[in-house]
């Protein structure tokens, strides 16, 4: 019997080892000057520069995280992996249908074609925006106060009921259809319709407001007030009338308190028109000042 050699080497077989690799986490992208960092999580390819540009464009630079669906095609999906902090963005998607099933901050659609979005959950800011898209269908099953549509070819907005509809601001939309299911109403409008009535309109800049007026869907041209706030000529006129009525009521109360109403004398002189400045130098119109007691 041969003795075993203690120095004899024993062959070692290398066995491959596997290490669990974690999913790559999105890199925080610093945007803006506020010092905050925000994650842009995407389905699809998007460079860091594109993410930063997108973050700034949607007005979310120093706020919440963005969940972006980029360049998707032929996708039908329920979106559930979002939180109330997320702004949800769809950009460059074609032949897709998405349903939002969880709370989010805001919804933004850009450059999409043949695209359907169903909003079943609450949007914290109550705002949805669509920009440079074609053949988009939006279904609102929850309250959205402001829908903004800009430079789109065909858009259809379907509301579950009248109480989830407030208004739509739009500019440069070739065809807009609004459908309200309860009570049922269908309304169609377009930029071309208003352009035929007013040749001074500008496709990308002239803005309109579609909303219920006297229980009927109507569209009015938007004007900007001195403070930049969007309004309509009708709303501006009504506001000014209410302001004048309030001033008149206040003046009446002041005159009563001072017990001078019956003794007030109108300055002598030529007849003054109702809309001319009052000769008492108050700076008010005659009809709102001394003319009330003439």
UniProtKB/TrEMBL annotation:
Pfam families registered for this protein in UniProt: CAP_C (PF08603), SEC-C (PF02810)
Domain called Adenylate cyclase-associated CAP C-terminal: residue spans: 71-186
InterPro entries xrefs: Adenylate_cyclase-assoc_CAP_C, CAP/MinC_C, CAP_C_sf, SEC_C_motif
GO molecular function: actin binding
Region (Disordered) residue spans: 1-35
Gene3D superfamilies: 2.160.20.70
Composition-biased stretches (Low complexity): 15-24
Biological process terms in GO annotation: cytoskeleton organization
Protein name: Adenylate cyclase-associated CAP C-terminal domain-containing protein
């Amino acid at each position: 019997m041969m003795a075993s050699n203690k120095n004899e080497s024993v062959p070692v077989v290398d066995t491959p080892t596997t290490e669990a690799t974690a999913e790559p986490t999105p890199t925080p992208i610093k945007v803006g000057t506020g010092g905050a960092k925000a994650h842009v999580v995407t389905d699809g390819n998007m460079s860091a520069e594109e993410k930063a540009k997108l973050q700034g464009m949607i007005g979310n630079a120093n706020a919440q995280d963005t969940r972006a669906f980029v360049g998707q095609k032929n996708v039908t999906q329920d979106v559930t992996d979002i939180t109330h902090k997320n702004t949800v963005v769809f950009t460059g998607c074609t032949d897709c249908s998405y349903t939002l099933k969880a709370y989010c901050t805001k919804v933004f659609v850009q450059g999409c074609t043949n695209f359907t979005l169903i909003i079943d959950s609450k949007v914290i800011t109550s705002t949805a925006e669509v920009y440079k898209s074609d053949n988009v269908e939006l279904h609102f099953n929850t309250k959205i106060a402001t829908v903004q549509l800009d430079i789109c070819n065909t858009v259809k907005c379907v509301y579950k009921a009248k109480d989830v509809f407030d208004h739509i601001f739009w500019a440069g939309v070739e065809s807009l259809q609004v459908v309200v299911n309860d009570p049922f109403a269908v309304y169609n409008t377009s930029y071309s319709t208003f352009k035929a009535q007013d040749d001074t309109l500008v496709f990308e800049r002239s803005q309109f407001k579609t909303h219920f007026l006297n229980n009927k869907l109507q569209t009015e041209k938007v004007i900007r007030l001195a403070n930049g706030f969007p309004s309509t000529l009708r709303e501006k006129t009504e506001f000014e009338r209410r302001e004048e009525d309030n001033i008149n009521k206040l003046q009446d109360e002041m005159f009563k308190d001072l017990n001078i109403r019956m003794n007030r004398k109108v300055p002598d002189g030529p007849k003054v028109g109702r809309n001319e400045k009052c000769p008492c130098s108050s700076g008010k119109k005659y009809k709102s000042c001394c003319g009330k007691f003439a």
